[in-house]
Amino acid sequence: MQSSRAVGDAGWGSGRWGVVFLFLAAPLLFAGNMVGARWLAGSVPPVTLATGRWLVAALLLLPVALPYLRKHGMSHVSKKLLLLVVLLGGVLSVAPQYGAASYTSAGNIALLAAMTPLLVAMIERAVWGIRLRPAMLAGIGCAFSGIAVATFRGDLGALLRLQVNPGDLLMMAAILAWSGYTALLRHRPVALPPMVLLWVVAAGGAACLSPMALLEWTQAGVPALGAQAFWGMLFLGLVAGVGAYGAYGRVVTLVGAGRASMSMYLVPAYALGLGALLLGEQLQPYHAVSMALVLGGVALGTVSPAKTRRA
């Protein structure tokens, strides 16, 4: 997310254990976002929830971003690139996800989110011609098999019939946008400090989503936003809007978009556990098979060969 790789590598989390911590923490924060969205489903409309989450994040980040903006401004930043980053990372990857929470479980949302590495790899190959390591291809295949097991609940008949619900389609749209955001951060970095860029995504996301939230109110009525909605938006703004995006963006800077996206394979493990613990969602035997395949895929796709380590 920095204007140069050298600047990015010198910051927080650049040590070996710092990278490991961020790699494990980012998917946990994203899983918390999905569980929170599922908890709020039905009480807060999805676009309203996405707008509130970004508004909270923008206000939290304003004290960090304002001094930089006053001193440097943003005249040196490509406005087209910035708009694309905001649309992918702040609008299209968030609102559909919260819409999906009304139709499916937090665990299923997370399992679909774990398709990110495959989509990122395909985007990087198609747009930038990035060659995929055999180990990463094997890891993607292994983890994707685990996702398929859980998505179709271990039912081969459901797989052959390709039974999906509206939540699956909404989540697929969100994950496609998120994958584009991930790849874009790596190959077209914005010349802004990470937290300033995150503020731009948050403020831009809130600004773009606000008119759609008003349209949502005209169709479904003004929602009665009580204490649950307030605390839920505060939680999502802090945990997902600031914590998850900040940690994930840093991992992208340090290890590349392909490897960073592999951390998304850990989201289902976290989300299934949190969903069972906090929301009472049932765990099934096929979840164990799925997680074994997913975690095996993560290991295959992220462990560097000895030659790469020496280099």
TrEMBL record:
It is a multi-pass membrane protein. The chain crosses the membrane at residues 20-40, 52-69, 81-99, 105-123, 135-152, 164-184, 196-217, 229-248, 260-280, 286-306. It is found in: Membrane. InterPro entries: AA-Vitamin_Transporters (IPR050638), EamA_dom (IPR000620), EmrE-like (IPR037185). Residues 20-151, 166-300 form the EamA domain. Pfam families: EamA. The keyword Transmembrane helix applies. Belongs to the EamA transporter family. This is DMT family transporter.
